[in-house]
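Input for the complex:
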Amino acid sequence: MVDFGIPIGAGIAFGLGALGTGIAQSKIGAAGAGTIAEKPETFGLMIILVAIPETLVILGFVVASMIMIMLV
Amino acid sequence: MEYAYVNARIRAMKSRLLDPSLLEQLINKPDIDSLITELEKTAYREELEKAGVLYSGINRIEVAIRKDLVKRFRSILTLIKGGDTEAFLAIILSRWDVQNIKTILRGKKIQENPSEILECMIPAGELDEAALTELVKQPDVKAVIDLLATWGMVYARPLILNFKEFTDTGDMLVLEYALDTFYYEDAISKVKTSESDDARVLKNILITEIDINNIKTVLRAIRDRIDPDEVKRYFVKGSPEFDANKLLTMMKTGTIEGALKYLEQTPYQFITKIPPEYIAAEKISAFEKELERYLVKKAISQFLGDPLSIAIPIAYIWAKYTEVTNIRVIARCKVTEVPEKDLREALISV
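Predicted:
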């Protein structure tokens, strides 16, 4: 009997992280675009700020990987 | 409405407003030329250069800061398109329509030169530069009102309704109060229909403005010993706390101290702390100044409100308007060699 619970759990860990990242980046990206339109010199800073929510999806990926490696 | 983009742009615009230390430098400039040189180091440089082709001295500053104000407000309006937000922003900006119409009417009454009137215009509202130029060309007050009616402008209605009284008395205040009353009551009725947070923020500011206008009317009427029943019709409706009955009760006390007692336990209690000598001398300008400062402070403090709401555009519009007013005060004081102490008192400090 195949246990689907483990890959589904890993999928949720990764998927929700990605969703959170997407929502956060959409808001930060829009605000960043607005700021760059007025002050182009903030481009570098905006790239960093847009990238910060990536940590969410990376953590999700790590948790998903741990679930898959340790429990399967 | 994508507030993240719009409000980030507005906040970036806010960062270009003059900070207090720069305003201090402007105050310390000895004359108008050094003031222009200092302003050329700021965001006003572009407009100052353009205005420098046709104007010099204080006129150059006046034209440049006015054009910059209009440019900023119009750019906000182009960013905010559609829905309630655009309508709410139009309500805020249409205050300049009212101001422009009042200036034109006053100019026409004293038969001022059209070019002089046009120089005082701030085309930030629905009436753009072309429309204002056409209005200014009209020969008299009646023709201005007729043209507004022909264009289907809502402001024609209160003016037509009160025109007979104006012709009988020759008092421009009749038309000015009619315009103000119409503007605020129309704005409140538009905001009331919406339940959104944006509507709540705007309504809050509008009610403060209405209260302040009504309190000023009460204080002026007490000073000038005007009959309360005559003043009643100049009260603007729309404020839940200061309705006509409460304002009338304030008026019927007959003294400034009596009226001020009714302001205790309200957000306007700060004017009860004005030195007694001003109260005894019935120096209303001191009260008006404090009330205006309160309004400006309250509007600009909206920057601390919800960052994804209309609070940020409202705060910016007020902050920009305050800055322009302060620069005008400084420039005029430099030309007329007003002492620094009086200049500082005249500034709107927030």
